[in-house]
Every structure is written in structure tokens, then in C-alpha cells.
Write a structure and sequence with these properties.
The strands form 3 sheets. Strands 3, 4, 5, 6, 9, 10 and 11 form a 7-stranded mixed β-sheet that branches. Helix content is 43%, strand content 21%. The two termini are 55 Å apart. Helix 8 links the parallel strand 7 and strand 8. The chain is built from 11 helices and 11 strands.
């Protein structure tokens, strides 16, 4: 059996004529007819209704043609995968992009846990604003981006060419410096009293879209007084530890400060914002290395961090 026979059968189904199909396949009509008969002999039944014009395939012929299309597509796909694997560098560098608040603590812990179950790989992190990471992903400058998502804000637009999967969780918690007895220096849940100094992310900071809707729904803005604004979570963390105000920060970032007592959570549970951490990719820009990583994470998704 020759795979080219299935191409002959496909062309015959398109033209309905032996002479035309033979011409397209660039062989003589007698040779073309012999190849169709050879295929029928291999299958064990007639695949063509020869008494009709145009020529039609029998039900067996249609079934075999569909099966051959699927098989040939799979063979071509596997062939392309093998060729691609041979053309990739032996040590492909997987490039991630993440906003600073993710790249600071979550990413190193996640990458180590991922490599423990997937295997070692060479990678690079670009810590940038989320907008820059998304643009780099769309422009095929990086392989993956990592972003927060919450009930208040998505990581990518509905009509985006990007897709995402969940790889972890975090939360935004309001924190401030503790007082002498360990209580929050600023009592966020107090219904009255002086305005609370607010250490705020800038308007353009991606985390803002997760925090602002919560504050708007709670009608709490009138009690907050912006005393410092910065798009960098690390800068807000320093000011919070200095006692300058309250900041909503990723729990993964401030966990060491909470454990050491340098910061405390102020406010009740409903002021916490649950976050998903999602891995993003450009579905039109993949290779065998990144597809393997994606397929692995699509089945495992959240990997327990060490």
C-alpha cells in the first residue's frame, strides 16, 4: 500500500473523472487507474462507482477517504513536530513576562515547584508592567505572561488572541504597620474617625482594577486619603512598613512581614480580594517546547508551592 494512493482517491472524488484526476496528479490515466485498483485490492472492496458520470465514490470509498484524511493530517502534524524539534536550539530559553508583584515572590517559588514535577528547563523572566508584558506576548517577544485575575478584573479581553490557564492563587489584603500592642495602626473597619491614609497603586497600575471596584461598591472612598501613590507593590510595601498608611498588597509579597510582625492585616475578611494567577500565551505563537509546557499545565494546572 502506497500513501499516494489516498491522494489519488481524494483527487478522483473532487473531479469525478479519471482523466482529469490523473492530469492533476501528473501521471497517465492507465497508471492512475491501476493505482486506484491497487488501493481497492488492499482495502478488499470497490471504492469507486465506475458506471456513473461523474464518477462517485462508494460508501466504502467515502469512509476510506475520510479515514485517510485524518491519518494523513496526523502524519503531517507529527512530521512537522519532528522537523520543528530538530530546528529548535538544543537548549531553548523559555521566556516569561510578569508584573513586578508576581515576579518578586510567586514566580520563583512557582518555577521551582514546576521544574520539580516537569523537569529542569532554561528560562528567563522579564519583570515589566502588565501592559508591556501583554504587548510583548502579542508581538511574539516572550513565550508566556503571568497575570492576576479576580471577580473584578480579567487578565485578558474576551476577544483577545491570547488564552490563559490558572497556575496559582493569591489575594490582595489591606495591611499596615502594627501599633505598640500589635493592633493595626489604622483601624480600617471603624465606621467613624479620622480619614485613613491610603497608599495607593497608580491609576495605570493593573492591580488598581481589582481594588477600585471593591472600594466603589463599599462606598468607602470618602474615608480614604491618598498620601502616596506608586505602581510598584514593593514601594507601597516599604511605606506601609514605615507606618505611612494602608495598602492592598499581594499576600504572597507581604507574608514574611506578617509573620515577623512588621505588618498586620487591617479590616475584616470581606476586604480581602481573592486572585487567580494565570499563565497567558499567544495561541498563534507556539513551538514544541512551549506546547509541551502548556499541555502539562493544562492537566495539572495549580502546582503546590514548596
Amino acid at each position: 500500500m502506497d500513501l499516494s494512493w489516498f491522494r489519488d482517491l481524494e483527487q478522483l472524488s473532487k473531479t469525478g473523472n479519471f482523466s482529469q484526476a490523473a492530469k492533476v496528479r501528473n501521471i497517465s490515466q492507465p497508471a492512475f487507474s491501476r493505482r486506484i485498483k491497487a488501493l481497492e485490492a488492499w482495502v478488499g472492496t470497490n471504492l469507486v462507482e465506475r458506471g456513473r458520470h461523474p464518477v462517485n465514490l462508494t460508501s466504502a470509498g467515502k469512509q476510506m477517504l475520510e479515514a485517510s484524511r485524518q491519518a494523513l493530517e496526523r502524519l503531517e502534524y507529527e512530521r512537522a513536530q519532528i522537523i520543528e524539534a530538530q530546528t529548535l536550539p538544543d537548549k531553548y530559553v523559555v521566556t516569561f513576562g510578569a508584573q513586578h508583584s508576581i515576579g518578586w515572590r510567586f514566580f520563583p517559588a512557582w518555577l521551582q515547584a514546576f521544574e520539580n514535577v516537569y523537569g529542569a528547563m532554561i528560562s528567563r523572566l522579564r519583570a515589566e508592567d502588565l501592559q508591556i508584558c501583554i504587548a510583548a506576548l502579542e508581538n511574539r517577544e516572550i513565550d508566556f505572561a503571568i497575570a492576576f485575575e479576580s471577580a473584578y478584573g480579567r487578565s485578558i479581553a474576551e476577544d483577545s488572541s491570547l488564552e490563559s490557564i490558572k497556575i496559582g492563587t493569591d489575594s490582595l489584603v489591606p495591611v499596615c504597620k502594627p501599633g505598640a500592642r500589635g493592633e493595626p495602626l489604622f483601624l480600617f473597619d471603624a465606621e467613624s474617625g479620622p480619614r485613613i491614609p491610603w497608599l495607593r497603586f497608580g491609576e495605570s497600575a493593573p492591580i488598581t482594577r481589582h481594588i477600585d471596584p471593591l472600594l466603589d461598591n463599599a462606598k468607602i472612598r470618602s474615608r480614604l486619603s491618598v498620601v502616596y501613590e506608586n505602581s510598584m507593590a514593593g514601594a507601597l510595601r516599604i511605606r506601609a512598613r514605615d507606618g505611612d498608611g494602608v495598602a492592598w498588597l499581594p499576600y504572597s509579597l507581604v507574608a514574611p512581614d506578617l509573620d515577623s510582625g512588621m505588618l498586620v492585616i487591617t479590616g475584616k475578611e470581606h476586604w480581602k480580594i481573592d486572585l487567580e494567577i494565570r499563565l497567558l500565551r499567544n495561541r498563534e505563537h507556539t513551538n514544541i517546547v512551549t506546547r509541551r509546557i502548556w499541555a502539562f499545565l493544562a492537566t495539572r494546572q495549580q502546582i503546590p508551592l514548596i
